């Protein structure tokens, strides 16, 4: 069958050249192929633990062996359930957070090269490639994810690393805040129609998934004026709070219904804007990052804000962030800047994925940025397999002052 | 009786160092080693739709993004959608037209979602023609892709040009001689590099994909705006109807659209499933290969360990208490059609791991072979275990045995101290365990040493009976003897039969150990 042969050989050839793009997140992982307009799948970063059978988060382990086993299972699951291609002999782009853990990076590289025998793997910095989706080279990239929010300014395609800022403010912090607020201010309607405060059994039902669902479907980020009045009320009950938004009845189980009060709906996200013990919050770290940039580039930074990450899609968050930035910048001794926000062409949680995809779509752009399997195996013997910006070995290499 | 079928009680130690139940382990007959899903390479054989069981070739699957063209999933709950028929009665305004029309719509039998809910027009044909959803900003993303392709190409050419120029300057001896007039040299090298750039440009243009990759791509960069979309005006007054707001799961089902309102949900094409085959990394032989037909659940090749390794089961759970000897009864079953001499030996973890490491270095892999890192996940094993001494014989598996008279046990001279019962190809043995401390789960381990007769159809005839090959962890443990006579070499020269002695580490989870039972009985 010459016809079939020619077709199959052609596809085999083509298939091998499709680069796979991974964007591993602590809550959701985005995967897809190069040259496409969006990820094929967004899957929760959990795997079934072979010993207990429970779903466990993939990246939340400090034991390298457990981490490796989980990542192996997870990548295999992605290939078999979502991508449906042979894992072997492929080029890979992994979108990494520059501030992420090196153990996770090393383990991902180990799994991809050793278990799945990839041709080459390229780790690209997420903040940098987020700008590719806009076609600009300069911008202040704010990535608000599940476990942390990180800010890295990029000028002319180069990350200004000494101005990085990060805080553990993300969906996880909001979930914790929501749980505390629900416990304090909400009630549960039982089978008999009586409203009682939350019992321990109800708190057990408030899993991370359910809290996430409540945040996404019921909660929003309030306006600065209302937030101010809410905080005044919290400090001194004599102050009149703003009229609360309507309550929501949220089914917890067959007979229990959670009555989420309107104040909880609007207060849950306030944790991002409340200053912590170090007097830091989301707007303040963005301003700090701007202030750490060279003075000549600050104006460009403020005019090119890019907010990405799944949490950034929360209702009203971007607007509030801009308002707070304008408000707080006038308080300090900052020059008056205009704050402008970019609108990426894809949903917020896919922006960094699309950036990796744009970079991975071209052989010419990918080849010089990737580590091949041969290089990896050779480097394994010298105990520093993956290039890392934080390692002095790779930073002094191109420095003209360094001894050759 | 549940413990008999609880696969996780008795686990085997795979050659990669992971503990897996016998159902999760494969036996490579060519390497004569245990393999598990961690240390084999997975290959995808074919894609098929789980609803219509239609298989889809790779190019089509790539085109359709691994989704079936005809079957749909409910965007609300994920169930399969079914096509419903509705007969349109004659239009009341035009009574002259009395022809009935058949109209089709999609409906979910799970959550009652229909395509009419989101105003998708009914179709006149059952098979489809359903409108497709385009990703938003598709044009923009495609132009971005084009742009960066061009930028990368330009980058690459620049690099090559630099490299060539550098090489030329180094090579030509004239450059050393004429080092005085550097200006002329620089000029000439620039012009020549320009020429080479032109050449490479021409070459790219001829090979470029349909020639649609222009080298100079103009892309308008995105504009930042001072205003962003804020909260809807009615959010502080209008109550939330939960059913109208999509959950995270519903949003992520269509990653490119991510609808936030349930009114913008859209039927999803059914995602394909795959059949996969497993291949040993060391010898590249197939360990498992399914049949090509999507509706068949059979295998062409299935080298599961339960066909080749004696099956060890816990006969009944025993109460355990500290300091008191418990008799744990195990059953051993021979799945092969050969007589199997077998012995239980103490399991020394450090020796076995050394054995694994030695095996890794000893096996001569191919040049492009990469070893999977070995794992170590052994639990704390109970040390005071008395295993049955001596060797016992397992009768070959015989499917007719249960119909005949069960007098087979007469032919074996069993030591009653070792074998407690014998039935067809099974025997029962007793292991004495003395727990030392209170734990939630007590583990015991032993080495199952048995003679395995391997029948392999080999192309080369002649060589047949091979003596026992010891794969033991240490040389001082002598092999169990020659075992059954090797296959008659004169009858079938193409079938090579060889007997090897194998050691399989078995780890059994016995359950919780109580503290006070010994005192109360004493």
From TrEMBL, chain A:
Organism expressing this protein natively: Hyalella azteca
Pfam families: Actin
Protein family according to the UniProt entry: Belongs to the actin family.
Coiled coil: none
InterPro entries per the UniProt record, alphabetical: Actin, ATPase_NBD
Bias (Basic and acidic residues) ranges: 229-239
Name of the protein: Actin-related protein 10
Taxonomic placement: Eukaryota, Metazoa, Ecdysozoa, Arthropoda, Crustacea
Positions of region (Disordered): 229-248
From TrEMBL, chain B:
Compositionally biased intervals (Low complexity): 475-494
Main location class: cytoplasm
A Pfam cross-reference name: Dynactin_p62
An annotated GO cellular component: cell cortex
Subcellular location: Cytoplasm, Cell cortex; Cytoplasm, Cytoskeleton, Microtubule organizing center, Centrosome; Cytoplasm, Cytoskeleton, Stress fiber; Cytoplasm, Myofibril
Region: Disordered, residue numbers: 157-184, 475-495
Assigned keywords, A-Z: Acetylation, Coiled coil, Cytoplasm, Cytoskeleton, Isopeptide bond, Phosphoprotein, Ubl conjugation
Protein origin, superkingdom: Eukaryota
Subunit structure: Subunit of dynactin, a multiprotein complex part of a tripartite complex with dynein and a adapter, such as BICDL1, BICD2 or HOOK3. The dynactin complex is built around ACTR1A/ACTB filament and consists of an actin-related filament composed of a shoulder domain, a pointed end and a barbed end. Its length is defined by its flexible shoulder domain. The soulder is composed of 2 DCTN1 subunits, 4 DCTN2 and 2 DCTN3. The 4 DCNT2 (via N-terminus) bind the ACTR1A filament and act as molecular rulers to determine the length. The pointed end is important for binding dynein-dynactin cargo adapters.
Family: Belongs to the dynactin subunit 4 family.
Protein name per Swiss-Prot or TrEMBL: Dynactin subunit 4
């Amino acid at each position: 069958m010459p016809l079939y042969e020619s077709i199959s050989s052609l596809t085999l050839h083509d298939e091998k050249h499709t680069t796979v793009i991974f964007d591993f997140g602590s809550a959701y992982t985005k995967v897809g192929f190069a040259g496409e307009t969006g990820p094929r799948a967004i899957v929760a970063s959990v795997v079934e633990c072979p010993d207990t059978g429970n779903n466990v988060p993939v990246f939340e382990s400090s034991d390298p062996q457990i981490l490796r086993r989980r990542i192996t299972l997870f990548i295999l699951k992605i290939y078999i359930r979502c991508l449906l291609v042979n894992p072997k002999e492929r080029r890979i782009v992994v979108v990494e957070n520059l501030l992420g853990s090196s153990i996770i990076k090393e383990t991902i590289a180990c799994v991809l090269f050793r278990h799945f025998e990839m041709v080459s793997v390229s780790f690209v910095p997420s903040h940098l490639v987020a700008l590719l989706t806009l076609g600009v080279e300069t911008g202040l990239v704010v990535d608000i994810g599940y476990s942390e929010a990180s800010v890295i300014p990029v000028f002319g395609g180069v990350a200004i690393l000494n101005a990085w800022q990060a805080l553990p403010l993300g969906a996880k912090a909001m979930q914790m805040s929501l749980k505390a607020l629900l416990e304090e201010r909400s009630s549960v309607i039982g089978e008999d129609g009586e409203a009682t405060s939350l019992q321990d059994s109800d708190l057990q039902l408030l899993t991370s998934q359910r809290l996430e669902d409540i945040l996404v479907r019921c909660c929003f980020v309030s306006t600065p004026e209302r937030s101010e009045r809410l905080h005044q009320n919290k400090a001194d009950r004599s102050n009149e709070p703003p009229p609360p938004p309507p309550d929501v009845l949220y089914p917890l189980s067959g007979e229990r219904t959670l009555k989420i009060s309107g104040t909880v709906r609007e207060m849950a996200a306030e944790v991002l804007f409340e200053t912590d013990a170090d007097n830091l919050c989301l707007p303040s770290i963005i301003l700090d990052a701007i202030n750490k940039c060279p003075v000549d580039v600050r104006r460009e930074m403020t005019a090119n804000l890019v907010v990405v990450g799944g949490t950034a899609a929360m209702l009203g968050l971007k607007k509030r962030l801009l308002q707070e930035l304008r408000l707080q910048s006038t308080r300090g001794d900052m020059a008056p800047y205009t704050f402008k926000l970019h609108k990426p062409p894809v949903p917020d949680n896919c922006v960094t994925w699309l950036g990796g995809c744009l970079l991975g779509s071209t052989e010419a752009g990918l080849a010089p940025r990737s580590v091949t399997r041969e290089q990896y195996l050779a480097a394994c013997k010298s105990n520093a397999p993956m290039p890392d910006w934080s390692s002095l070995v790779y930073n002094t290499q191109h420095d003209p002052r360094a001894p050759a | 009786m549940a413990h008999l079928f609880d696969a996780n009680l008795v686990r085997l130690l795979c050659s990669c160092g992971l503990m897996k139940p016998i159902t999760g382990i494969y036996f490579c007959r060519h390497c004569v080693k245990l393999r598990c899903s961690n240390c084999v390479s997975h290959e995808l054989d074919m894609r098929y739709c789980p609803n219509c069981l239609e298989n889809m070739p790779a190019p089509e699957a790539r085109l359709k993004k691994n989704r079936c063209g005809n079957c749909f999933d409910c965007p609300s709950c994920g169930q399969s959608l079914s096509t419903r028929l509705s007969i349109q009665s004659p239009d009341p305004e035009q009574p002259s037209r009395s022809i009935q029309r058949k109209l089709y719509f999609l409906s979910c039998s799970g959550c009652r979602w229909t395509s009419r809910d989101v105003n998708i027009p009914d179709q006149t044909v059952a098979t489809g023609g359903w409108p497709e959803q385009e990703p938003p900003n598709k044009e923009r993303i495609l132009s971005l892709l084009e742009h960066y392709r061009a930028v990368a190409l330009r980058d690459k050419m620049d690099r090559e040009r630099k490299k060539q120029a550098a090489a030329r300057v180094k090579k030509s001896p004239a450059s050393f001689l004429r080092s005085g007039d550097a200006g002329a040299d620089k000029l000439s090298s620039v012009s020549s590099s320009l020429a080479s750039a032109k050449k490479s440009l021409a070459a790219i243009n001829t090979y470029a994909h349909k020639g649609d990759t222009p080298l100079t791509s103009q892309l308008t960069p995105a504009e930042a705006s001072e205003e962003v979309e804020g909260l809807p005006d009615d959010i502080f007054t209008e109550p939330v109807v939960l059913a109208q707001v999509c959950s995270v799961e519903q949003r992520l089902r269509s990653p490119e659209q991510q609808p936030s309102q349930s009114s913008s949900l859209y039927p999803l094409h059914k995602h394909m499933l795959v059949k996969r085959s497993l291949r040993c990394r060391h010898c590249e032989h197939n360990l498992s290969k399914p049949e090509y037909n999507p509706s068949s659940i059979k295998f062409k090749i299935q080298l599961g360990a339960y066909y080749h390794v004696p099956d060890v089961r816990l006969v009944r759970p025993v109460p355990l208490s500290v300091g008191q000897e418990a008799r744990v009864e195990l059953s051993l079953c021979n799945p092969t059609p050969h007589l199997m001499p077998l012995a239980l030996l103490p399991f020394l973890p450090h020796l076995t791991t050394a054995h694994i490491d030695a095996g890794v270095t000893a096996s001569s892999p191919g040049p492009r072979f990469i070893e999977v890192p070995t794992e170590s996940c052994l639990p704390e094993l109970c040390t005071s275990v008395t295993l049955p001494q001596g060797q016992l014989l397992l009768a070959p598996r015989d499917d007719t045995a249960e119909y005949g008279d069960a007098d087979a046990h007469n032919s074996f001279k069993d030591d009653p101290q070792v074998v407690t019962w014998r039935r067809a190809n099974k025997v029962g043995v007793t292991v004495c365990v003395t727990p030392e401390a209170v734990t939630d789960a007590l583990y015991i381990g032993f080495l199952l040493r048995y003679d395995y007769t391997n029948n392999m159809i080999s192309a080369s005839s002649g060589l047949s009976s091979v003596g026992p090959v010891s794969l033991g962890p240490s040389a001082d443990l002598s092999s169990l003897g020659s075992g059954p006579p090797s296959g008659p070499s004169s009858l079938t020269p193409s079938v090579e039969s060889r007997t090897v002695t194998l050691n399989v580490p078995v780890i059994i989870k016995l359950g919780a150990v109580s503290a006070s039972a010994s005192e109360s009985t004493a």
